[in-house]
Amino acid sequence: MPALLDALRRLTPRHKRALKNWGRRLLGVDFVTVPESRSSLWPYELHTTSARRFLHFRELLLQLEDVEGQIVECGVGPGRSLFVFAILTQCVARPRRIVGFDTFEGLPEPTAEDGRGNAHKAGWLSHSEANVRELLQFNGVASDFIDENISFVRGTLAESLPAYDGRAIALLHLDVDLYESYKTALDWLWPFVSPGGIVTFDEYRSEAFPGATRAIDEFLDRWQLGAVKSRFLDRWYVVKERPESAKR
Ligand SMILES: C[S@@+](CC[C@H](N)C(=O)[O-])C[C@H]1O[C@@H](n2cnc3c(N)ncnc32)[C@H](O)[C@@H]1O
């Protein structure tokens, strides 16, 4: 049995998908894949989505060159998007402080708004802060850069965001999957987004995350905003309006 479990763990994503489909057809059962079940250190993958997401973030950060503020991310996970921000702020965009909020213990309990597909996901995507630091370093981000430029804030967003220090935000990246998480992040952080600043969503209009879409739609309605689709991939963002005087 341990050997079988070990073999299953080492299957590539393509083989896991094939096995899952085969199981579905043959046995009429569904399997729940636990994400991120790999060794604690691995190279961040480069595939079409991650490459296009890199281009998306690059374009947004270049668009923000005249906007003051830090980069804030809610939903650090293993640190793939933090890694991109670290590279971009060293190579093509102006340097900025980067702050990552997460439980560092995985997803909190989903609610009814998140739908059946997410109902069992509490604790998924669990990466400790130490593991995120190790992963960033393993992928080539210098430990000095991390110490000097990246801060991690631990806890659920409901616990940590009420104590947000009020620093201006140029780019807010939300990648928190769930209704309550999106709602909390938008309620607390939108007031700190600078005029001309951007909020970009990882899960908007994704069928897999109905709660995220609902929370974002409620936010857009409340503030009368229109979301813009990235020209690189299926990701959406909003730009905070600048005062009339700043547009001239
Ligand atoms: C999909 S992962 C983030 C992936 C990451 N941005 C990347 O590119 O690698 C979602 C993360 O959101 C965090 N999260 C979701 N809801 C949260 C909440 N209410 N408070 C704190 N963290 C939350 C989870 O712990 C998880 O690490």
CATH superfamily of the largest domain: Vaccinia Virus protein VP39
Query: In DSSP terms, counting alpha (H) and pi (I) runs of 4 or more, how many helices?
Result: 10
Fraction of helical residues: 40-55%
The structural class is alpha/beta
**The number of domains:** 2
Care to describe what's here?
The protein has ten helices and seven strands. The protein has a seven-stranded mixed sheet with strand order 3-2-1-4-5-7-6, sandwiched between helices. Helix 3 packs across helix 4 (80-91) and helix 8 (179-189) packs parallel to helix 9 (210-223). It has two domains: 1-33; 45-247, Rossmann fold. The chain is of the alpha/beta class and 248 residues long. Helix 4 (80-91) links the parallel strand 1 and strand 2 (98-102). It binds S-adenosylmethionine.
List the helices and strands and how they pair.
Elements: H1 2-9, H2 13-27, H3 48-63, E1 70-74, H4 80-91, E2 98-102, H5 129-138, H6 143-149, E3 150-154, H7 157-160, E4 169-174, H8 179-189, E5 193-201, H9 210-223, E6 228-229, E7 236-239, H10 244-247
Parallel strand pairs: 1-2, 1-4, 2-3, 4-5
Antiparallel strand pairs: 5-7, 6-7
Summed up:
By secondary structure, the chain is of the alpha/beta class. It contains ten helices and seven strands. It has two domains: 33 residues; 203 residues, Vaccinia Virus protein VP39 (Rossmann fold).
